[in-house]
Amino acid sequence: MCIKESLRTHPPVPYIARSLTKQLVLPDGRKIAAGQNVAIHVFACHHNGTVWPDPEVYDPERFSPENSKDRPSHAFIPFAAGPRNCIGKQFAMNELKVSVAMTVHQYVLTTDQKHQPERDARSVLKAKDGIRLYIKPRQK
């Protein structure tokens, strides 16, 4: 749940673009013709207050089974969705779980409270001047 919430608050790819293969009718009735290019702002979807209450608050419990069951299926799309989603999604999730587990098992990580990272959204989302961490080995 922590990894999913981290991907929600800081999606690795902040936007995706697609070319429509068929006409799209929006909820308000407006239509977008087939062949048009559209952009999906993943960051905005993941911070939509109507879907995610208090979207700026980090809350892993959002992804508990009881909190996820009524959420629209495409509200959380860190690896895109549908037939053109990321083919490495499963590998990336498994790699994240193993990497995080091994890291927190061996080290205590704390952030530098004097340095607040600024988001820099380009083709991937990253911290403008990096993220400053203190890393200390755990006592055995």
What do you see in this structure?
Helices cover 25% and strands 21% of the residues. The strands form 4 sheets. A two-stranded antiparallel ribbon has the order 1-4. A two-stranded antiparallel ribbon has the order 2-3. A two-stranded antiparallel ribbon has the order 5-8. By secondary structure, the protein is an alpha+beta fold. The chain is built from 4 helices and 8 strands.
- Please state the CA-atom Rg, rounded to the nearest Å: 18 Å
Strands ordered across the widest β-sheet = 1-4
The largest sheet is:
2 strands, antiparallel
Distance between the ends = 27 Å
Sequence of secondary-structure elements? HEEEEHHHEEEE
Helix content: 25-40%
Number of strands: 8
Strand content: 15-25%
Structure summary:
This protein is an alpha+beta fold. It has helices spanning 2-9, 42-46, 65-68, 89-106; strands at residues 15-19, 24-25, 31-32, 37-41, 107-111, 119-121, 125-127, 133-137.
SSE layout and pairing:
Elements: H1 2-9, E1 15-19, E2 24-25, E3 31-32, E4 37-41, H2 42-46, H3 65-68, H4 89-106, E5 107-111, E6 119-121, E7 125-127, E8 133-137
Antiparallel strand pairs: 1-4, 2-3, 5-8, 6-7
